Amino acid sequence: MMFDMPREVWEEPGYTVAEHTNSRPVNWALVRQVVIHYTADKRANPDTAQYLRNMQRSYVNNRGYSLGYNVAVDQQGLSWEIRGVDYRPAANVEVNNTTYTILALVNWQDACNGVMVDSIRDIVQWARQQAGRRLEIVGHRDVGSTRCPGDGIYNQITGNVFEPTEDLDMRIINPPVRAYDSRKQQGRFKPGETRKIHVGRNDAVFVNLTAVDAQGWGFITAWGDGPMPDVSNVNYNVGMTIANSAWVPVAADGCINVFSHAATDVLVDVQAVAS
Ligand SMILES: [Zn+2]
Predict the structure, then answer these.
(1) How far apart are alpha carbons 268 and 208 in whole angstroms?
(2) 4 C-alpha to ligand 1 centroid (Å)
(3) Nearby residues for ligand 1 (ion, Cβ within 5 Å)
(4) Distance in angstroms (rounded) separating the CA atoms of residues 72 and 82
(5) pTM surpassing 0.90?
(6) How confident is the model at residue 92 (pLDDT cuts 50, 70, 90)?
(7) Which pLDDT band, with edges at 50, 70 and 90, does 159 fall under?
(8) What is the pLDDT of residue 1?
(9) How far is CA 66 from each of CA 17, 37, 78, rounded to the nearest angstrom?
(10) CA 84/CA 99 separation, integer angstroms
(11) Mean pLDDT in the chain?
């Protein structure tokens, strides 16, 4: 996710998020929900940078830590990085490890306007791609004792308004393309082996992962860049041939990483791409 406004745009020295946050990075393997909040202000300041600076000062001075939200969306539909992905939220007591948090800068209990809805849908869709699964969209009041995010936004949540619509940039591949077959390329995975598999230059691919004739208990994990996430996409046992589908972000070199816990053959079929 490229935030429209990285936090350097609004931060001021002495009150940066980094200086007042010691949370760990967002761990997508743990995230289950996207939580939407409001500010409870009667009127959001149209100068969003100034508004965020003031809120951050107030948080640091009164609570001793940074604004607890990951991203704010203003009435122009711009997304403003707060904690981004560098720090877990501190906005939803008890569930900060399992949530990604959006602050919607509406006036009081207003609903989000059209451009805000579009922006939030984009964030939800991106978050689901990061997590590799469907994250539930909830209001702060669903996970805490509060009126937040106000009735306007809450009605939009229960009306599924923030569900990403059919992504015009998503293409179903019919029939699916077999991107990898270890039986024909490189042979069976060794226990604990990771292979890079080329799937083309897309933001994400929807793949069917199949373990064929697994030699032991284990699982397959697929991911894009960076360290392996703490999730399994296919779980198998001795002698099994079993498949499962997942959205997987694609690394900049057009590859995904595929790890197998035990020895097994692996098939990767691309069913859809998002770019
Ligand atoms: Zn809230």
Answers:
(1) 6
(2) 22
(3) 37, 140, 148
(4) 7
(5) no
(6) confident
(7) confident
(8) 66
(9) 6, 16, 21
(10) 12
(11) 93
Indicate the SS3 state at residue 274: strand
- Residue count of the chain, please give it: 275
Mean pLDDT of 146-175: 86
Residue carrying the six token digits 């609570």:
63
Strands across the sheet containing 79-81: 79-81, 71-73, 99-104, 33-37, 136-139
Residue type, 118: D
Tell me the CA–centroid distance for residue 140 and ligand 1, in Å.
5
Query: Cα of 158 to ligand 1 centre, how many Å?
Result: 16
Beta bridge partners of 264: 189
The closest alpha carbon to 246, from 165, 135, 133, belongs to 133
The distance from CA 11 to its chain's CA centroid, rounded to whole angstroms, is 24
User: Which tokens belong to 56?
Assistant: 């951050």
CA torsion 34-125-40-107 (nearest 10°) is -170
Strand segments, DSSP code E, in the chain are 33-37, 71-73, 79-81, 99-104, 136-139, 170-181, 193-198, 204-212, 218-223, 234-236, 242-249, 255-260, 265-274
pLDDT at 167: 52
CA gap 190, 173 in Å, rounded: 30
Which helix (H) or strand (E) segment is 48 a member of?
helix 48-63
pLDDT digit string (tens) for 220-251? 999 999 899 888 999 999 999 999 998 999 99
37 alpha carbon – ligand 1 mean position (Å): 4
CA atoms within 13 A on the CB side of 159: 10
DSSP string computed for 88-108 = --SSSTT-GGGEEEEEE--ST
